[in-house]
Amino acid sequence: MKTAVVIDSTAYIPKEVREKYHIHMIPLNVIIGNEAYREEIDLTADDFYEEIKKADKLPTTSQPSIGQFAELFEELSKEYDAVISVHLSSGISGTYMGAISAGEMVEELEVYAFDSEISCMVQGFYAIEAAQMALDGKEPAEIITRLDEMKKTIQAYFMVDDLSNLQRGGRLSSAQALIGSLLQVKPLLQFENKVIVPFEKIRTRKKAMKRIVELLTKATVGDGQYKAVIIHAKREEEARQWRDEIQAGLSNVEFDIGYFGPVIGTHLGEGAMGLGWYKVK
């Protein structure tokens, strides 16, 4: 059985990596003013952060239509027997459900939708793993089993400079945003039960980043090899410096650099930083 892998754009897997592993991408949209952009196609992350500085109000975002999914699946059915379709958490977007609905419409293809329960390059870890297994000829059921196994060790934490975007976008309650603003805290956030929730309240950016490293170190101590990704919202130099600092003390962790693109960046804002990881073996 020949299996394709589909990812939505919020995984922010670089184009060259998608091409290497034959990963197909379906974009979400960000609307700035009266213009709609397909992220990773019409609008890069860097361009997005420049555009929103000039915008009068916060951009909005939208998921792919079921028709877009169906069109992609129909095209893939000409070459593939099955699709593993990996998507951002169903708790913050209907993208995963859209993939399920479209899969039911395309009879020529077996569609296995997978809810990553997270986003960004941590979500991308699932797609890359699935794509490598598909290239190795593994069956869809075996790939899904492996993704479920990965989910047991995947962790991610992130911090934002300003909670207002999350609150305005409906991803965090008004009360939580107000408390954070009044206390001038840099709350650590995480995905729990598919939604974004506060993990700890920390006073400064430096201390918040230090706390994330403590969590990574605790999770990866002992036997085992891990992959990790530092994710930034237009703070690439800071992300690289942070990686170099952490890497020196964790020889069993392989690090990469990722980014918060337009759709996720709309809700987190410029300056957000995150770190996610999983156990490879």
From TrEMBL:
Q: Which domain of life is it from?
A: Bacteria
InterPro entries documented for this protein: DegV (IPR003797), DegV_C (IPR043168), DegV_domain_contain (IPR050270)
The UniProt entry, under Pfam families, shows: DegV (PF02645)
- Keywords, ordered alphabetically: Lipid-binding
Q: Which PROSITE patterns match?
A: DEGV
Q: Give the molecular function GO annotations.
A: lipid binding
UniProt xrefs under NCBIfam families: DegV
Protein name (database record):
DegV family protein
Q: Which organism is it from?
A: Peribacillus cavernae
Source taxonomy: Bacteria, Bacillati, Bacillota, Bacilli, Bacillales
